[in-house]
Amino acid sequence: FGIxxxxxxxxxxxxxxxxxxxxxxxxxxxxxxFLLAGLALLGSVEGRLGISCWLVLLAIFITDASxxxxxxxxxxxxxxxxxxxxxxxxLSVRWGSHLRVxxxxxxxxxxxxxxxxxxxxxxxxxxxxxxILAYLPLLAGMAPPVEPGCFIAAAAAVLLALWDxxxxxxxxxxxxxxxxxxxxxxxxxxx
Length: 191
Known about the structure:
Blueprint (H helix, E strand, L loop, with lengths): L1 H15 L8 H21 L5 H7 L1 H16 L12 H9 L2 H25 L4 H16 L7 H14 L6 H7 L4 H7 L4
């Protein structure tokens, strides 16, 4: 399956390379994600490539999708609607260039994640530590710019949203972000 998927995605990249003439969107990214998850499970069961290795190889996508989803839930946004809050979208707007974002993500993958995936596969006793090492800088880089001390408030809001039996109430979210003007505005929907 991987032998078929790789050339297909490479062919898509030709059309998607900036300036893009074709976009994958959810209709392509969701099935591709499920296919990669299936390949990860199959490869792990067959003893080819362990789950830890796949977690490192897919770290950019897992981190971005998870962070964005948790942030949207924590801030009371409808997470099933279209948005432009993924890290690559925010970076391309901030830098005014999709190509620079692509090159950065390529450098992160080939310079950081691929060597870590090789280490995970070569040294399975350290797999958990290496997976954590792969994700920590990505989590720091994916987080939206916030005022100092705000990360704790955002994390608390995420926990509140995940474990609270009711809906995330606007007043609760604003209280969680006390002391951080940008987060208080974002959490209250007045950003």
